[in-house]
Amino acid sequence: MATAQEKFLEAAEVKAFDMELRKTLRHNIDQYDKKVVEGKEQFLNLELAKTRAAAIKQKSIDNLEKYLIEFEANFIKRGGKVIWAEDGEEAVKEAIQIMKKAETKTVVKAKSMVSEEINFNDELAKNGIESIETDLGEYIVQLRKEPPYHIVTPAMHLSKEEVAKTFTEKKGTPIDYTPEQITNFVRAELRARYSKAEVGVSGANFLIADMGAVAVTENEGNGLMTMAFPKIQIVIVGIEKIIPSLSDLDLFLPLLATYGTGQQLTVYNTIYAGPKQADETDGPDEMYVILLDNGRSTLLAETDQRRALDCIRCGACLNACPIYQTIGGHAYGTTYAGPIGSIITPHFKGMDEFKHLSYASTLCGKCTEVCPVKIDIHKLLLLNRKESVEKGFTSKTENWVWFFWKGAMLKRTKMDKGGAKVKNFMLKQFFKKSWGDRRELPQVAAKSFNQTWRERKGIK
Q1: What is the pLDDT of residues 406-446, one digit of tens each?
Q2: Are strands 232-238 and 106-109 parallel, antiparallel or unpaired?
């Protein structure tokens, strides 16, 4: 069976030479880039806003236990229920238990990457429960039986013609349907689903500790409908989404909108603080928040790499990354693609199996430059690489190569021994495969710099 690394290299090889895919990605990312420039204009001092946001997130993660307990206490006060899940299996098990008690047949689900992380839809299907994605992009990739391509824009890899073809094949709509007609078709389909679903499921953009509330930001209104109609609400959210106070949203919501979609603010920004109260006419009868660990504590234990938990999932680093722009989201073979995914996945799913993702980077630093909460992303990629070596997740061949390399580099006489011919032979023997099929190996010059220098200076 192929390893995660072998699958990644195979998929990357195919996607990198899919010119139509790269054209679609380039077009969609270009549109994003233009909008982000406009969105940034709302900030009088963008750098200060980013610095403040970074400080709040760092404070939140460094005091994670304190704020999660505060959130739990305040949420329970209003009749909500909090479930702590160590891993995805436990989270799904708890959710299904709630659904079976309510004799659930249909679930409507707002966009949630954490649900993708735990294979939520597939697990529900095994238990005879239909889970329907209500975000348009998620709905499209669900029809195609594909995972999301991007953490903000699930169908970024598809052109409007490909979307129209998907609906023709899956729903029988005319092949010449415009994006507006497709949107209206989906709206009509989902309206009927909202009113019939027994349970609504969503993720969360932020958990507000001092209020005991869940904040969700979105553009289509599907998240609001998902939480408004069903009588039972389940929120599945990673523990890192916590922020200290409601007042922090006035900073995070505009930053997330600007760096996520180029807007000043997303269209729907909703705060949920538990089930319907005695003096309220609207709201669910029951509301649950499942706090998911699933490897986050492993990352939290890392003194430096824990900063990756500060991420607000805006997707800016994916759009800026030349690797992501070349191979796209599916090639990574993980829920979280791009630079931030390459940092967190090895800690969530195992460094041994996913260490290769931290090497899938040019280290150009563009990801760090665009991060709205100032995560030093390219540095964390290097730290992951260092950790994978320190933990012994390297091959014997690689260890021997570096052993001899180090020995040669530490002593001039060894470095000069053998001459260019031997060195070029060694490069071909040990590095040709890792260098790639489409790049020529560098040639060692006939004389080293040291030798040339000595000759010019007449030094013997």
Answers
A1: 887 888 777 777 778 888 888 888 777 777 778 888 888 88
A2: unpaired
Pairing of strands 130-133, 286-292: unpaired
* 123 vs 116: CA distance, rounded Å: 11
130-133 β-sheet, strand order: 81-85, 286-292, 232-238, 199-202, 106-109, 130-133
Q: For 142, phi and psi rounded to 5 degrees?
A: -65, -40
Domains of the chain: 42-294 (3.40.50.10420), 396-457 (no CATH)
Between vectors from CA 270 to CA 205 and to CA 279, what angle results, nearest 5°? 130
**Backbone phi and psi for residue 395, each to the nearest 5 degrees, phi listed first:** -80, 160
Is the pTM higher than 0.90? The answer reads: yes
Q: DSSP letter at 428?
A: H
178 Cβ partners below 8 Å, 6+ apart? 160
Nearest 5°: phi and psi at 137? -60, -45
177-199 residue pLDDT tens? 999 999 999 999 999 899 899 99
